[in-house]
Design a protein that fits this description.
421 residues, alpha/beta, UDP-n-acetylglucosamine1-carboxyvinyl-transferase, Chain, 2 domains, four-stranded mixed β-sheet, 13 helices, 24 strands, 28% strand, elongated
Amino acid sequence: MSIWRVQGGYPLEGSLTIQGAKNAVLPVLAAAILTGCETELTNVPALRDVEASLEILRQLGCVVQRQGGTVAIDSRNVTGCRIPRELTGQMRSSIVFLGAILARCGQARIAMPGGCELGPRPVDLHLAAMEALGAEVRVEQGEIVCRAPGLTGGTVHLALPSVGATENAMIAACAARGETILTGAAKEPEIVELQGFLRVLGADVEGAGTSVIKIRGMRPVRHALWRVMPDRIVGATMLCACACAGGDLELRGLDPAHVGSVAEELAAMGAQLDAGTRRLRIRCGGRLRGGRTIVTEPYPGFPTDAQPLMMAASLKAAGRTTFVENIFDHRYRQAAHFAAMGADIRLDGRRAVVTGVERLRGARVEAEDLRGGAALIIAGLGAEGETEILDRGHVARGYEGFDRVLSALGGHIKIDPARQE
């Protein structure tokens, strides 16, 4: 537990290289056990969710070594097929190990995953995908149990474009006999990233980034090397932080297309954006304009992870900004805390209407989930006085040294060590 102390009123200036992507590295770590080989990953961010995944790999019998941003994994002697509750309870993304363990061991037993409480996120799509590949699936005493002496390719249709279910199906299908055609697939850049890594492992995969992905098995390799892509949600976070606090930031390493929907909304609200090859610059010198309706949708639509961040950026925008949240039921948990800072927000089911105020004031608030916590930090940057944010470890799940990054750019932030555990 910790308290973030954010002193508002200081614009952000300078440049930064965006960290490796949390949502890309987690499925890559799971896929590393597909075959018995040595894998070297670079640009791996130091995050709580990543460390939890590395501990899962060790639990399964892998030898894992980390030095800075480089992680070496030796999966040649995988001996386990079970992930206990004390590990899965730390993050929702632990479910992505299901397909990898099943593919490697022929069976898997995984306790129901945890993570941010954003509303119902059933694992039905994941289980249906495993069944479509020939696995026997059941849930008993809070654990998912899968068995399949041999997986068989076929057609796997996802009723919804779930990112996690797409990843699980892709990974498991690499060990299936024959061709697997995955329809209704998610199109996020992290899916393309996973396809690239699976190819390095020797898999025959194509179609990532479209709704149809084809997998035709794999020819295992002895050694794999992969560099993790930059984190587009961290990129969106920094864009929104500059929009709220004001300033001039250049984001390096990021593909501007990956944050296109966020950049488009900020530009329409009055921010100046300049995109180049693997870089994006934002300048904000005055009050933004409201009047937009922002609807969360699967990629390439506006990402649900960026909705709390954009809401923070809109709190002082002149006029009204409307948000429609189509992905999660409880993604407006940050709204009550924004209101404590003087924001004007009206909630109506999946719709939130923000009427911009001229000033936000510092207050004591609480981070209830990962992106909501980052959004409160953003709002604190644009508020008058000090904002104290109680954080039970949420922010560290997705941001590496977030306080140091913002401080290096001119933000006045510190974490109270007296309240850390």
